[in-house]
Predict the structure.
Amino acid sequence: MHIRRQSDDAVIDPSNQQTIPMTNYRFGSWQVTINRQPRAKEDLARQYDAASRNWQQKIRRYGLAAAYRRSLMASGAVTALGKVGSQARVLDCGVGSGALSTALSSILSQSLNFCGIDLSAEMLARADVEMRQAGLAPDLRQADILSIPYNDATFDVVMAAHVLEHLPNPQLALNEMIRVLKPGGMLFVCLVRRSGFGAFIQMRWRTWAITERQGVAWLRACHLENIGCQPIRLGSCAGQASTAFWARRSSGPGRPPETASATEKHEGDA
């Protein structure tokens, strides 16, 4: 019997998803889909609390600091923040140990205002140490990315590294990130991509593994502009395990974010 794996973009609907899609196969006229329940927020926070002890070792092992710097430079975030000046504000959602924020700070020519949120109290404590050692004075809060504790249009850059893929509906988190982003501001996210190492992460953490076309479709559904993406190459044989995506919020009035359209959802794999 011929077994064909169906295009993942054609079967994943983030607007109607209560589980994390793992894989989908078609056997002739039969279709087999495997999903997993996402971790509850409390469970995810406990898991990251435990992981926080060795998180910096993983950051160094996979060369995340250098990988983040390369993608941030490619996105144009540094140039955009330079135009705003020292009053610019950056929000790191799911800040973890602060690796993405410190990577951005290391390639800026001036000090900015960094804020961060995370479900994990232990990760926030680690981020406070790491970011202060890097010369930052962050405002860190224990909070959910689905309910960001800041006012509308507060930040010039809103970013998240390997956070959205934990959620059954990443589109809701994107909408909330855009809510606190200033008109003309930049959204920057890193997502686990489909790869051998990505499959390991997907099984270990119950995350999505996301194609470039799928990620771009989600950003288009939010009516963002100047969308770009770039594979992130990690060390320690992980290869291109993630993708960086970036886009800008429109400077003028526009439609509010909504879930992906049928056309965008049915684009093929990258």
